[in-house]
Design goal:
By secondary structure, the protein is α+β, with helices and mostly antiparallel strands. The chain contains eight helices and four strands. It binds glutathione.
């Protein structure tokens, strides 16, 4: 049995989407970040860094944090979502790493400075807008020639990136100038498992 500890958030959506896509049986534990539940001792015993998502696979005696590691684990466990052909497999891993380094952290900062910081900080807003748009342009160029990040195969790289691009959409960040990224976003968003995943553990909060 897999236990998933999560909340409605960009990193949380990656795990729920992957579990829904893979149709693996799992038990969902709602960790309310806003109530400080991710910093409580019982949760810190699972992830000393105090962040969701976390999975516990009781059969394999494996506890994992960091969404990219969780996605790799679930793909291996489910036998899908990570291509077996060498080139496509490494494309997926490369874009999974790109998302972890250049999409999630930068969009996280952009969301903070544009949506939540009470004191407007124009240089920080400009910096993270520029850096996220650079990442959008890089992804757009790749998706011009590729249906998905790993090529023809939908993979955990798409799920990881979607988690953050969905939050960008909720925040009203305009990606219409990036036609291929927009096409990819609409295609992934339309998948039934993705729709189920972003509704868990409760609908995403607005900005
Ligand atoms: N690099 C981590 C980031 C995890 C993360 O930042 N999760 C946020 C929610 S999206 C969180 O749990 N925040 C709780 C807190 O800061 O108290 C991953 O990819 O899993």
């Amino acid at each position: 049995m897999i236990r998933l500890y999560t909340d409605a958030s960009p990193n949380g959506f990656k795990a729920t989407i992957a579990l829904e896509e893979l149709e693996l049986a799992y038990e969902l534990h709602h960790v309310r970040i806003g109530a400080g539940e991710a910093r409580r001792p019982d949760f810190l015993a699972l992830n000393p860094h105090g962040r969701i998502p976390v999975i516990v696979d009781t059969e394999a005696d494996v506890t994992l944090f960091e969404s990219a590691a969780i996605l790799l684990y679930l793909a291996e466990r489910g036998g899908r979502l990570l291509p077996s052909a060498t080139r496509a497999r490494w494309q997926a891993i490369q874009w999974l790493a790109f998302h972890a380094a250049s999409v999630g952290p930068l969009l996280g900062q952009r969301v903070h400075f544009e949506m939540f910081e009470k004191q407007p900080l124009p240089p920080a807003i400009a910096r993270y807008r520029r850096l996220t748009e650079e990442a959008f342009a890089t992804m757009d160029g790749h998706l011009q020639a590729n249906r998905y990040f790993a090529g023809a195969d939908y993979s955990i790289a798409d799920i990881a990136t979607f988690g953050w691009m969905h939050i960008a959409a909720i925040c009203g960040f305009d990606i219409s100038a990036f036609a291929h990224l927009s096409r990819w976003y609409a295609e992934v968003a339309a998948r039934p498992a993705v729709q189920r995943g972003i509704a868990l553990p409760e609908p995403a909060p607005g900005p």
